[in-house]
Write a structure and sequence with these properties.
By secondary structure, this protein is an alpha+beta fold. It has four helices and eight strands. The chain has one domain: Alpha-D-Glucose-1,6-Bisphosphate, Chain A, domain 4 (2-Layer Sandwich), CATH 3.30.530. Helix content is about 30%, strand content about 35%.
């Protein structure tokens, strides 16, 4: 299963240059966008989105363990990471349309310490036999933040993080159903 997931992740990442872009970049902010094809229905993709412990890369957690992550897909819900002696709020849901859109107020990773504002939107729509997700991350601060210098790196990290989500749903759909014996 890990090999299939790794292959799926690599195939998603290989497609990112055509599907990802730094849409805007200036010292005071940037916008990055990723378009992801998902081999799952919007409802299936939504359900998987709410399980970041299954798809978020451990290298992009504070604790080093994605099992500590949770995402409560409710208005005001927390994208949180909790470990025995601490925790972090990565984001808070500020808009929600079940199976279609979730928007978080989220200064992710080192951006949190920079005291900038980040808004992460994930829109899901049916496409062909599956779905398309558009992940848009808008970050703003002051010119002193020099955010244009990190826009490309943030774009790559967002692609890695949400590429894992898209690949996991693709792997789940490709997995043959296990028949239970009567």
């Amino acid at each position: 299963m890990r090999t299939r997931l790794a292959i799926a992740v690599l195939s998603i990442l290989a497609a990112l240059p055509a599907a990802a872009a730094v849409k805007q970049s200036a010292p005071e902010g940037f916008i990055v966008e990723h378009r992801l094809s998902i081999a799952a229905t919007p409802a299936q993709a939504w359900a998987t989105l709410g399980q970041p412990a299954r798809w978020w890369p451990k290298e992009h957690t504070w604790s080093g363990n994605p099992a500590n992550l949770s995402l409560s897909l409710t208005l005001g819900g927390c994208f949180c990471e909790r470990w025995p002696d601490g925790g972090a709020e990565h984001g808070r849901i500020i808009m929600l349309r079940r199976n279609e859109l979730v928007r978080l107020n989220a200064a992710l990773g080192p951006l949190q310490d920079m005291a900038v504002t980040g808004v992460l939107s994930i829109a899901i729509a049916p496409k062909d036999e599956g779905s398309e997700a558009i992940v848009t991350y808008r970050v703003s601060g002051t010119p002193a933040h020099a955010l244009d210098k990190i826009a490309i790196a943030v774009d790559q990290v967002v692609g890695l993080q949400f590429g894992g989500w898209a690949a996991l749903d693709a792997a789940a759909v490709d997995k043959p159903a296990v028949k239970k014996k009567p």
